[in-house]
Amino acid sequence: MRVTVAEDAALMREGLIGLLERFGHTVVAAVGDAPALVGAVRRERPDLVLTDVRMPPGNADDGLRAAVELRIADPALPVLVLSQYVEPVAAEALLDTGDGAGVGYLLKDRVADVTAFAAAAQRVAGGGTVLDPEVVRRLVRRRRDPVGRLSPREREVLDLMAQGRSNAEIADALVLSDAAVNKHVRAVFTKLDLPVEVSGHRRVLAVLAWLRSGS
């Protein structure tokens, strides 16, 4: 996998490069500001963009705005955003690009679990959608509360669904049978008035569309 990395902190940038190379990926460009990110992606056409939210030149959400610009120009471009803090507005802006496929938003703390981080990067590059559990919780709190219809177990299932987990992965994480997970997934869609979708990232996108809506 060919990856472009955008991170203004040199130590973090070098750490990400080393981590990606450890898992057999090639970093085709590593930059420290948003304009350089846009230029590198247009030049290298990577399989994945890995970018911080807050970067020069404005040291605000320049990295996120560059990622959104790139996704608008090429909705199929996979982008995984890393952030020090939970920023629901930034997450929603990214999810609103294209059809929401091939995007991810993780807190930087998640990089410490290198295997999980590498899996998340691979999932996004493959067209999946990955959200940090804390981002999901913040998105849920931003809207009125149909989630209140869900049982505690169904909320756990929804969290994992929004991270792009398959039913089998949810079963492993929650120590449930496949049949029990299927039942909870159907209940989540029913209670949120969403059509049942059992395949691929389209199921996740339906959940994310509900999370983004304000109605």
From TrEMBL:
Which positions make up the signal peptide? none
What GO MF annotations does this protein's record show?
DNA binding
Superkingdom of source: Bacteria
Matching InterPro entries: CheY-like_superfamily, NreC/VraR/RcsB-like_REC, Sig_transdc_resp-reg_receiver, Tscrpt_reg_LuxR_C, WalR-like, WH-like_DNA-bd_sf
Mention any Pfam family matching this sequence: GerE
The yes or no answer to whether the keyword Transcription is present is yes
Which residue range or ranges hold the Response regulatory domain?
2-123
| Stretches assigned to the HTH luxR-type domain | 143-214
Residues bearing PTM 4-aspartylphosphate? D52
Keywords from the UniProt entry? DNA-binding, Phosphoprotein, Transcription, Transcription regulation
- CDD domains for this protein: LuxR_C_like, REC_NarL-like
Under PANTHER family, the record lists: TRANSCRIPTIONAL REGULATORY PROTEIN NARL-RELATED, TWO-COMPONENT RESPONSE REGULATOR
Protein name (database record) = DNA-binding NarL/FixJ family response regulator
Give the originating organism.
Pseudonocardia parietis
